[in-house]
Amino acid sequence: MSGERKSIRRSLLLMVTLPTVILTVFVLSIGVLLFYHFYSQSIRDELASTTTMMVDCLDLTVRGDYQYENGILLKGNMNITDSTMLYKVKEKSGIDTTIFWGGTRILTTIEDQYGVSAAGTSAEKKVTDVVLGEGKDYYADHVDVDGTEYIGYYKALENDGNKPVGMVFAGKKLTLVYQKILRTLLGFVLFSLVAVLVAMLCTRQYSSGVIRDINTINHFLQTISEGTLGETLDERIRNRKDELGDIGIYADKMRTNLQKLVEMDALTALYNRRSGNQMLEVLVGQRAEYTAVMCDIDFFKKVNDTYGHAAGDRVLTAISAQIRENVGEDGFASRWGGEEFLVIYCMNLEETRKRIDKLQQTIRDLQVRYGDQTIRVTMTFGMGQSDPGESYEKVIKRADEKLYVGKNGGRDQIVM
Fold it and tell me: Tens of pLDDT along 85-129?
């Protein structure tokens, strides 16, 4: 049972499109992950730098230990309970900052949706355990700050002896970070999709051209298989510099060779009888004027008997060459059978007679060499001119009858 016929167009486009889409999704996924990783790392570095800058500003500006009494943060003897630096940082970088005493926020730019400051709220225990308990920095890409998710970085505030007494926090709201990441990724995705679309369109256009030429070659081969050998393949395909161009050239050569095999007589290189009939049908359909000449080599059997069939073939080949040269572009010649030929001249009887006179004399003078032998022959010609609308069979019959008159009348003559 034969399976369903598959379209090469669909298969080729699927073969090209599917890997492209899969590769794009893979590259896009890797790109998104890498971008998120590098962007997260850049945020971490930015927050770490901000906390370090705040601690350095406090340490270098005022000498002494930190103290917190009655809601006032002191550094040495100076009151540093001022949020100006924190809001400057937020204004310049969009980063929220906080100063802790212990685990409690005493100065902060963080506010809830109603504008209420987060001052007085506490840090998560996991943060205080690391920063205040171990004196280490703490970073998290998900940290709860008074009910809001942040990406945050914590750094200890230390008195003499490296004793942590508080913390500095720098962070960005997770929702804002995701929005920025999504905007950036959306641009990246859109660019990738456009690039893929352009690649697919270019691939589709190229593959469509390939498929179009494949279909042209397929149609060409189909016409050959149906016996139509007169068509030629599009020059554009033969000029392709790839495998399809090679296939086109070989297909055209095959058509030419098949045409010769089907239409031409292998020995004489003249048209065979079948092709001669087909070409006469065309002339009749065009109501063209023509003259048919039936001609026969005189005493050809004697040539075969005397010199052998190979010599006879040499004579047939030489005679055919003279006939082909004589008719030129003004008609065609076919081997009708054995040593008999049909020559069609697309001209009237009188003009054809002049050509046949020359051909007769040429053949009389022809010397065919075979080994050390020289073979000379003559021919007899019978001529018949067509009438408009007349079937070619009648014209050939009339020329054939004239040929036999010449044969019976002594040969080597022209009868019209």
Answer: 899 999 998 899 999 999 999 999 998 878 899 999 999 999 999
Integer Cα distance of 326 and 320 in angstroms? 10
Angle at which helices 392-408 and 273-285 cross, to 10° = 120
Residues 267-321: tens digit of each pLDDT: 999 999 988 998 999 999 899 999 999 999 999 999 999 999 999 999 999 999 9
CA atoms within 13 A on the CB side of 102: 6
Q: If you count them, how many residues does the chain have?
A: 416
Q: Residue 162: left (phi > 0), alpha (psi -120 to 50), or beta?
A: left
Question: Which residues are CB-neighbours of 414 under 8 A, at least 6 positions away?
Answer: 353, 356, 357, 360, 380, 381, 383, 406
What is the DSSP secondary structure assignment for residue 264, as one 8-state letter?
Answer: B
DSSP secondary structure letter of residue 145 = E
Nearest to 375 by CA among 309, 296, 307, 297: 307
| C-alpha span between 384 and 293 (Å, rounded) | 7
- Nearest Cα residue to 202 out of 194, 214, 191, 213: 194
Q: Which two tokens stand for residue 82?
A: 């001022």
What is the distance between the alpha carbons of residues 340 and 342, in angstroms, rounded to a whole number? Answer: 7
Ordered by where they begin, the domains of the chain are 9-180 (3.30.450.40), 266-415 (3.30.70.270)
Identify each DSSP E strand in 81-202 by its residue range. Answer: 96-101, 104-108, 138-145, 148-159, 163-173
